[in-house]
Amino acid sequence: MKSLMSLWSSVAMEMATRCCTSTTRDITTVERRVEHEGLSFLAITLADYGKAIQKWLDHGQVGPKSDVPSFRWDHRTGFPRFLGGFLTRVFDPCSGLLLDDPDIEAIIALRQLTLMFSKIALPREASNGGTPRNGNGYQVVSADRERKAMSEYIQCEQDVKKSDARLSPRNRIEFCRMSDLLFSRLFTKVDRDVYYYNLFPKHGPGATADRLSSNEKWNQHAWPSRLESIFPFGEYALPNWSFNDRLDKVDILEPGQEQPVRVITVPKTLKTPRIIAIEPTAMQYAQQAILRSLLDAFKEDDFLSRVIGFDDQEPNRFLARLGSLSGELATLDLSEASDRVSNQHVRLMLRNHPHLLEAVQASRSRKADVPGHGVIRLAKFASMGSALCFPFEAMVFMTLALMGISDELSNPLSDRKSITAYSRRVRVFGDDIIVPQRHVLSVVTKLETFGFRVNRSKSYWTGRFRESCGREYFNGHDVSIVKVRQAFPTQRQDANEVISLVSLRNQLYWAGYWQTCKWLDSHIRKLLKHFPDVEPTSSLLGRESALGYQAERTHPTLHSPLVRGYYVQAEAPRDPLDGAGALLKCLHRLESRTRQQPGQSYDWYDVDNSMSRDTGVIGPPADDKKHLERSGRPKHVSIKLGWRSPF
User: pTM higher than 0.85 for the full model?
Assistant: First the structure.
């Protein structure tokens, strides 16, 4: 706790210097409140304050006291006293209105100092006992908040059913018309792939509802009967028909015997967890096959590849920046987006493509096992965890966005040519939606008509603040911040925390917090005896710097520079595979290399296959020669000392 407090104080003092103000009293306030309220003050109370400030920026004036009930207000300025020095450089002290030329550095300071800990996973000992921990021993949310999240999941399911019942025939017809304009060509290509068995399934490294290990997935012994008609086990789960004797050992499951998806929580914020559903192995395997065909078809469609993103967030960020400059583009964010996509929405979209419709419905899990609520039947299409969740939610949102725009036009959008005119003003990446500001209210209405909830606290269209795909902009300036993901380590053996701390240091460096980085360097050197200067591409845990690196020795045979430092070692768990399953896996890996184009990626829906810059999460190696002996995500991560390249 002391280290986190010191980090906050260091950032506050550095930003105060840059903004020509003082944070002495602010630091005292944080120290006092952390002492009495614990780390929840940093992770929850400050984050609520930061969200209120973002709303004020969007509305162009300081809001009422009810926006920030946890802080005292100064009656002379009409501002909260906390961080008041920065607020007066952004808002007029007399009227509370946004200044004509607000200090961008002060805006960044306000956001950094309030939202820095909003995504942190806190150690269990920091909570008041009994708090559940994730696999790394970190508190995710309290048990009460987790139970509340599960109840909200059930309530969301009821909302989807009510929304389906309320949807008028006219809205259904218009939805079908617009989705046909957008996706008819794409669905026709995928429908053909399904009909001719030209699909390529795969297993991901993640968990499955039936709890099979990574390599065990290649020897499946259960196959839903719904899949058999469209994904025959012999065609998709055997290396070739010479292994047909294995068919006698396969349990063909009738619908009532199918494994439901397993609903769990994963870290999002301390206040609210994220809910995902872990799919059964067979369902996930089939979903991946449809997904690959969908992505191939998207790539071939010039218009759709420009307005819907799957693995590149930069176009959304570029449009968000333009929107903050001109005000002509709005950014929308949805609450519980994936859980509110109804299966009926997807069925309407695919009604004219029977083979694809059958494949999608066959690979869709119909039931979910929800902790505390038992097994329920699902009205939603799929929760996060399904390989098809992300692409279909994006297609539904694009359809509704253009329906909303069309409602306000004198000549409604009626052909591909008229829709193409919006290729630079409309874009969807997941639940991050960008639409023209002049049509935003109509789009919001259309989304809500179909049962979705627009998160108005994270949607912006009135002021000069915009946010999309993890980047925030004000009047064309990038005001994004660096967030602390994990608590500080107490020893070098806390590998995940050390990796996260080094990543935090380097992110702060490139964000310009150089004085804070000096303090972090001294803190890290107490844990890591060797902490060299390295390039961002180096495998070593080191200090990134614009000044480059300093070589300590030369490789004896390659004659390339080397430095001594700590590197990450993460070995996949032992998971031997032989026989038919081993042959099937090898054939899949060979075909995957043959089909995949340079620079093409299909792993956006999986946890990263490499070390994450933000969290230090380690995934499986991309090309492991020992994949038949070891496979899956590493259960343990360690750091080792050695000589490595600094670049």
Answer: yes
Mean pLDDT of 108-114: 97
Backbone angles phi, psi at 526, to 5 degrees: -70, -25
Please report, for the chain, the start and end positions of each structural domain, with discontinuous segments joined by +. Answer: 1-128, 147-477
Q: Residue 553, Cα to own-chain centre: how many angstroms?
A: 41
Among 275, 220, 211, 285, smallest CA distance to 250 is for 220
In sequence order, the 6+-apart residues with CB closer than 8 A to the CB of 605 are: 204, 291, 387, 389, 390
User: Which structure tokens are listed for 251?
Assistant: 């349990």
Spatial distance between the Cα atoms of 205 and 300, rounded to a whole number of angstroms: 28
User: Which of 457, 447, 459 has its CA nearest to residue 163?
Assistant: 447
- Burial of residue 553 (number of CB atoms within 10 Å: 0-12, 13-18, 19+): exposed
Looking only at the bridges linking them, the beta strands covering 540-541 and 543-544 are unpaired
Could you give the 3-state DSSP secondary structure of residue 122?
Answer: strand
Beta-sheet strand order (sheet of 261-266): 274-278, 261-266, 367-370, 374-377
Give first-to-last CA distance, the chain, whole Å: 34
DSSP, residue by residue, 348-393: HHTTT-HHHHHHHHHTS--EEEETTTEEEE--BS--BTBTTHHHHH
Sequence-distant (6+) residues with CB within 8 A of 286 are 201, 227, 231, 236, 359, 362, 363
Which residues are bridge partners to 377 per DSSP? 367
With tokens 């999941």, the residue in question is 153
The tokens for 282 are 């067979």
Q: Which helix (H) or strand (E) holds 569?
A: strand 561-569
> What DSSP letter does each residue of 404-473 carry, written as one string?
HHHHT-SS---SHHHHHTTTTT-EEETTEEEEEGGGHHHHHHHHHHTT-EE-GGG-B-SSSEEEETTEEE
pLDDT at 324 over 50: yes
Per-residue pLDDT at 291 exceeds 70? yes
Express each pLDDT in 476-526 by its tens digit: 999 999 999 988 998 998 899 999 999 999 999 999 999 999 999 999 999
Average pLDDT over residues 361-390: 94
Amino acid 465 reads: F
94 burial (CB, 10 Å; 0-12 / 13-18 / 19+) is exposed
Q: Which two tokens stand for residue 300?
A: 């071939």
Which tokens hold the place of 56?
């004020």
State the CB neighbour count (10 A cutoff) for residue 210. Answer: 18
Write the CA distances from 371 to 260, 341, 376, integer angstroms. 12, 22, 11
State mean pLDDT over 337-344: 95
What's the angle, vertex CA 505, arms to CA 500 and CA 506, rounded to 5?
A: 100
pLDDT confidence of residue 399:
97
Token readout for 256 is 């009532």
Q: What is the pLDDT averaged over residues 226-242? A: 91
**Separation of alpha carbons 327 and 137, rounded Å:** 45
pLDDT surpasses 50 at 356: yes
Burial class (CB in 10 A: 0-12, 13-18, 19+), 195: middle
Give the pLDDT of residue 608: 31
Written as six digits, the tokens of 359 are 């494949």
Task: Quickly count helices (H) and strands (E) in the chain.
Answer: 21, 23
| Residues 83, 22: Cα–Cα separation, whole Å | 9
